[in-house]
Amino acid sequence: MKIQRLASCVSGSIVLAGLLIATGTSFLGGCTDKAPIRVGFVAELTGRQSELGVQERNGVQMALEKINAGGGVAGRRLELIVRDDLGTAEGAQTADRALIEIGVAAIIGHATSGQTIAGLPIANAARIVMLSPTASTTDLSGKDDYFLRMINTLQDRAGGLARHVYQRRGLIRLAVLYDTHNAAYVQSYLKAFTEKYRSLGGKVVGEAKFSSPEQPNFDPLLSKLRASKAEGLLIIASDNDTALIAQRIHLIGWRAPLFTSAWAQTETLIKNGGEAVEGMEYEEAYAINSQAPAFLNFKVRYQEVFGWPPSFGAALGYEAALVLAAALQKTGGKARGLKEALLSTRDFPGLVDTFSFDSSGDVVRPFHLGVVRDGRFADFEHPNPKDR
What we know:
By secondary structure, the chain is of the alpha/beta class. It has helices at 16-22, 51-69, 89-102, 113-126, 154-168, 183-200, 218-226, 239-252, 267-273, 293-306, 312-331, 338-343, and strands at 37-43, 78-84, 106-109, 129-132, 147-149, 173-179, 203-210, 232-236, 258-260, 281-284, 348-349, 354-357, 363-364, 368-373, 376-379.
C-alpha cells in the first residue's frame, strides 16, 4: 500500500471520514512528539475459525496506517496493540485485561458474539469502549454499557433472511443445522429466524446441532434432516464448517436449496466449498460486491497489501477504526467521553453506505442479501430492515 506522508503539519481537522473514505485523502493532524494513542484489537487470530479475526485486524491496520500517514489524531499517532482471544471465553477475558492494563483508549473487537459477551464486563468495569466490527447477537442490544457494534443486529438480518426464504423462495418447510460452539450468536440467530419464519407461515421441520471443536461427522446429522422432507436447509456455522457441510450434502445427492448466515461469508467458503456452495443464499454482513468508488478503492489497496480480497470483516474493521479515530479526535485522544462521542455519530460515511449509532450503541445502516454465483459472492437488492 502506498501511503504518502504529509510534508507539513496541519493541526486539528475532523473531516476524517470524508477525507479518508470519500476522497482517499489523508487526515490532517498535527505532528508532535507526544506519546501515541494506544488502540487495542482483539479477536480469534489462530485456529480453524480465525479468518474473520485476521481480516478484521487487517482492515483496522490499514485504516490506522492511513490516519497516521496524515498526522494521526489530536496531534498524536495511533498505536495498534493486538491480542489473540483464541476463540474462547477465557482467552477473551485474558486479552481484554491485558489491553486495559497497557492503557488502550478503546478496544476494537471481538469478532464473535461469545467472546464479546465474555470480555465485555471487563471493559465495562474499566469504562473502556469495546467496538466490535462483527458481534451481532441480540443479547447485547438495548443496554447502557460500553459496547458498540458496526454490524446490524441479528434481529434485522436473520428476520430478513426468513422473509426471503418464505416469501421470495416460496419454501414452507425448512431444516436447520447449527454450531453450538458460538452459542451467543447461534442462539440469537436461530431465535430471530425461526420466530419470523413461523410468523409468516413457515415450519421448521428438522433441527440438528454440532460442536465444531469436536470435528463432527456430518453425515448422520444430514441424513436425519433429509428424512424430515425439508424443502431447504439453513446452516448457521463458520465459513469452513459451512463449506464442509455443503460438500457432504453434495456427495449424498441432497439437492435442497442451501441458506447460510453472514458468519460464513468469506473467501474460505467459496475456496473450500467449490461447486457445492454454488447457488447458496445468505444474508450479507456487508455489500462485498458494491461498486461504490470508495469500496472499490479499498478492495484494490487491500489486495495489494495482503494478497487476497477483503471479506466483510476487513471492511467493517476498517470502518470501525475510522469512526473510532473521529471520536478520539473529539475527546483529544482520551478514553473519557469516547462512548458519548461515538453515540453522537450520525451519517458517518462508510465505504458503501452511511451509518449512525442508536442510543444503545447498535449501528443503523442498510443490509443486503446475496448468493454464490459463478464462484463469487453476488448481491440481491436491498431488503427493507423495517419490515419485520
